[in-house]
Amino acid sequence: MGQPLKLEVFETVDVPESPVFLLPEDVEEIRLNAYERGYVAGWDDCGHQTQEDDNSRRAAIARQVEQLNFTYHEARGHVLQALEPLFEALLGAVLPVAARASIVPLAVEQLLPLAHAAAEAPITLRIASGSRAAYEAAFDGLVLPPLEVVEVDDLQEGQVEFTFGTSESRLDLNHTAETIQRAVERFYQIQTEESRRA
Known about the structure:
With 198 residues, the protein is an alpha+beta fold. It contains 3 helices and 4 strands, in the order αβαβββα.
């Protein structure tokens, strides 16, 4: 029979050979050191946790802002798309009618300062054919200088010209309505191009 195998022991056990007695001051110092190390470790953990929470909140806010931004552009696009037929109807039907209806009051408004400036010189008011009755109704009750109203074929409803002496002035609400219509059409064209790029 062989001898049993003996292995070397690598553990070192610090076992005091005799009981250790600590003074109350030493116990208090050990307790304070342990408290201090625990407090510092807790503070560090709290700081790391707070930093992680802040980073998570910032990332969540950034995602929400990005989603809101997308939602805003998407909603804006839908609203503009829904309003396009309304604008087309306004520009195609209402605006020209409003221009024709507004030309007489605007002409009277422009005529009064011209009348004071012209004093004795006669004023010629050139209007579209067939619109004399509307102007005469608007002039009713106004004190005007000598005024000659001439219907011409080269003007449309929504257009009027004043001449006195060598001065000439023109109101063209038809052109204004067309300019507004082109501006709205261009606006929608730009929106469509931006939507395609997005």
